[in-house]
Amino acid sequence: MASLDAPPVGTPTIRWRVPEMHPEGRKFVFIAGALAMLGYWWFGWFAFWPLAGLTLWVALFFRDPVRVTPQGDGLIIAPADGLITMIERVPVPRELAGENGLGDAPLVRVSIFMSVFDVHINRAPIAGTIRQVVYISGKFVNASLDKASEDNERQHIVVEGRPDADGNARRIGFTQIAGQLARRIVPFVKPGDMVAAGQRIGLIRFGSRVDVYLPDDIAPQVALGQRSVAGETVLGRAGASAATGIAQ
């Protein structure tokens, strides 16, 4: 006979757990930890505690929490954690334009600004095949500024979804943009790779932005000032009404 305290059959037991740290962060945690020990050795507790706090922050920066990605046709999932700072129709970057990319007509761009306190693991907005990965070196101005999309170090990615019944495949382009503190964009994928929606595709070190370009049949489902969660927030949806006005 089942215990009265036992959960109903089929009910999962959910427990909170500390997010794991991505392997990319291990060397930085080691360096910060070594500095903390050296600070203690040379200057005592006065130097140790600030450097120990820095070590903890570095570990938290590279945290890689588990995410549950919504499933459904026509969904575009947020590729980054952060603040929705811009939703506007703009020309497509030349690296993403053309018949092998997103075309030449202006598209709606949704910009997600990641502070140094956000999770910086980026995820695929749709399931499909990576068609383009284009890296461009550049400056490191504030990633929240509009000109960062043209001036900063950045990486453009195009994902082509699975063909529908008519053989048409939707393409989603997005751009990882380095910020003032970010000094490297780390890719996890290359052209030809198959990805699932919400799969980890890269990270940007230390504060940055991600721009997502939505096709005309996709309506934004987020509003300015909203916070998105990579791999979970529905950024856009086919056949839906837009959640907010779009700057032209």
Give the overall shape. Answer: elongated
CATH class of the largest domain: Mainly Beta
Number of domains: 2
Low-confidence spans: none
User: Could you give a short account of the major beta sheet?
Assistant: 8 strands, antiparallel
| Beta-strand content | 25-35%
Secondary-structure element string: EHHEEEEEEHEEEEEEEEE
Helix content: 10-25%
Give the termini distance in whole angstroms: 66 Å
User: In order across it, which strands form the biggest sheet?
Assistant: 11-7-8-9-13-5-4-15
**Could you give the count of β-strands?**
16
Please give a structural write-up.
It catalyses: a 1,2-diacyl-sn-glycero-3-phospho-L-serine + H(+) = a 1,2-diacyl-sn-glycero-3-phosphoethanolamine + CO2. 16% of the residues lie in helices and 32% in strands. With 248 residues, it is α+β, with helices and mostly antiparallel strands. It has 2 domains: 20-64; 75-238, Glucose Permease (Domain IIA) (Distorted Sandwich), CATH 2.70.70. The strands form 4 sheets. It has an 8-stranded antiparallel β-sheet with strand order 11-7-8-9-13-5-4-15, with no helix packed on it. A 3-stranded antiparallel β-sheet has the order 3-16-14, with no helix packed on it. Strands 6-12-10 form a 3-stranded antiparallel β-sheet, with no helix packed on it. The relative contact order is 0.20.
Helix and strand arrangement:
Blueprint: E1 20-21, H1 26-43, H2 45-61, E2 63-64, E3 75-77, E4 82-90, E5 107-114, E6 121-123, E7 128-136, H3 148-151, E8 154-160, E9 171-178, E10 184-187, E11 194-195, E12 200-205, E13 208-214, E14 218-220, E15 227-228, E16 234-238
Antiparallel strand pairs: 1-2, 3-16, 4-5, 4-15, 5-13, 6-12, 7-8, 7-11, 8-9, 9-13, 10-12, 14-16
